Structure of DUF4704 domain-containing protein:
Amino acid sequence: MVRLMIDIVAEAKDDILMQKRALEVAGQLARRKLALLQPVDSAPSAAAAATQLSHKAELSAPQTFTSMITAFPQVERVVGRLLYLALKTQADPTLVESVLSLLTELLVFDARTVDAFSLWRTIQTAGPELRHRLLEVTQTVLEGDAEVDLYRRHVFVMRGQHAGIIAPSSTALPLKKGYTFCASILVDATTPAMAMYSFRGENGHGVSAAIDGDSLVLASFTSHGSFINLPVPLNGRRIAMHQTWTHVAIVHAKKMVFKDKILVYLDGQLHFAGNLPYPDALQMAGGHNCVGATPQFPSFQGQMVDPTLLGTALSDAEVAAVAPCSHPPTAIMQQWLWENGSAADKSKFVFAYDARVCTRESICDDVSGHSANGWLEPGTRSLCRSSLAAALGPLGGAATYLLLLFDPTVSPQDAARVLRLVASGLVVSRRCRSQFLRWHGSKVIAHLLTLLPTPPLTEDLLDAVVAVIDAVAPHVQTSRLRTMVLALFALQPVWFHGPVACQVRLLESVLPTYLGLLHSNNESDTSVMTMDVSHWCELMATWYSGSSAAVAQAVDVSMCCKLVLDNLIDPLLFPKQNVLDESDGWDALIRHLDMRMQSIRQSQTTAYDVQEIFGYFTRTLSSGQEMMPGVSSPPSRKLLFKLEKHSPMALWYTWLATPALELRLRVLEAFSAMTSHVHLRFPDAVLFHHALSSPLTIDMRQCAVILDVCLGPRSSALTGARHTSTPRGHFVPVVLLKLLACSSVVDYRVQLYTLYELHTVLRGPNSDIFKEYIRVDPEWMKTL
């Protein structure tokens, strides 16, 4: 009937009202079946089954994805018809939204491989708007799969008076010391009282449990003829059981001296502890063993997952590990089942039933290996549903959607959506992760990035690639993760050709996250590329120097260089962990800086990367000297110590002689900040004057820094007084007076400013000291 309504919508092209009504009826019929936990599609016919068998050998043979999807059997299903309807009505947004809403519900409930293939093919052939919406639907379904436990997709549905699972009466119950019954349940809200289990012998001796309103009633029938009921209040949990799954574990332990104990756990947490007489295990043989059924009591109504009876009393830690909602989730129950199946003594389990191993004849196999195969009552059926991530497995997993990006018409927005979809599949499915790693999906993404147009690259696309890496990072080895990060970020040139926003996002948050991973100290493996200080310096020289800057504006280039220095180079120069030798990073930085300074031959050279390196020195050295919490000494003091150790003063004087005007200003500022607490003598004054005497024009900005070096920075903004930490009287006659005489180098405005500052100093409180320094210089009169 649902197919008929869909066909009516597809054929009634001109009657929009009929299309809407037919689609509403199809949605109502489909949702009614989903509410009853019944599949909308009926079982495939004999012809369809024969077609699937004929293609089984072709699909199992090694082949490419294209040949595989070509050979895939086209089974007529409701999902396929809805997708075909979406293609025909994509011009009408209202109808498309109604179709996609119903499609989402069907895929969340149950998705098969043929549905996943139809969805993939429809996305490939749809228009831009419909493709975008289908990608959103697919991602929504995959994210919904993460919220649904994998094991709760395989449930026992119990409806009606005759519901339950009956274990054979010949099942041996090794319950001499205790037992544990556990299962995940979803209770029907319309039934106030229902049975949980009943294990009794032929004379009625045994135990049972039932839900009665907001209580769990535990009963024990002993061999002495006593009957004891123990009500356990649920404290309002019954209402929550109607909407959410609840893991119930009942542990009954026999005590030799003290009273027998019974414990009730809800979702792995102890809910109730009390006393209940333990029955005689010998008197419990030959009776009936029922799950969800009890004589003279309503059957269980709702859904149940993995009803299991263990022959031991579990501890608190074991119950917490068995619960599916444990954090972090464990697979200890599956491990116990595997161990019990191969063990000679199978007394750990009495029985364990799984909805996935039930036959059409209502036989439910015991997966514990104890051969306690049961049967399903007429009101019980096993429901096995598949998630979309699992349906994508035979097609190659979520990585299959990467093939959509080879279409040259795909926009970066759709590419970001596809990558987020792939990331969602990698999160929810282990098989999808395995296929992605086996196919080297990171290399495929790296190649696809080079095919996209560079200018439209967006931050959303970069975040989508980061989401893919984050999805597989916890599940791969460090070496493999490092290779992926190198291919997608560190060595991927498309990001540096892209917009400034992408580059800022990459340098500000993405690369610093993996900096410790990229900076490998494995000296034994010479094939591993080390991302050390020299690499990041070369990166700045490649992408952010004046001649090869990828962005046009100087402000953007400077900002990117600052991000590289602060987020990538600074953590390597000042590591938080104790490192025996940090000289390699500093040697590489000073070596790179000296080589770049030697290569600058023109006065108009910008060299933004070199400017920002000296700016980094200035910022750090000019930072406050106060102690920071958790730091042994301020950053300025550490940097001063490193610069004095690895860059001698003679090297700075050669840097000061650079012909680039803007760069010379940055070098002067860094030199002034570095020498603010360094004692400079007469040879330093001579070398400093020699570095400044090159045939260049000294502007006002450079003059202000030179005065700070020679006379000290201003200690008071009101009086204009200057102060130096160490005496620098030699700099007045050797540097300042000689610069006044160089009219070809110094502008008259600079000369006036310098004379004004000298006049202020010579009339200050320390004027006698400066006058004496001038008098001892033999050339001072000649210079004036």
Q: What stands out?
A: Residues 44-75, 523-527, 626-632 have pLDDT under 50 and may be disordered.
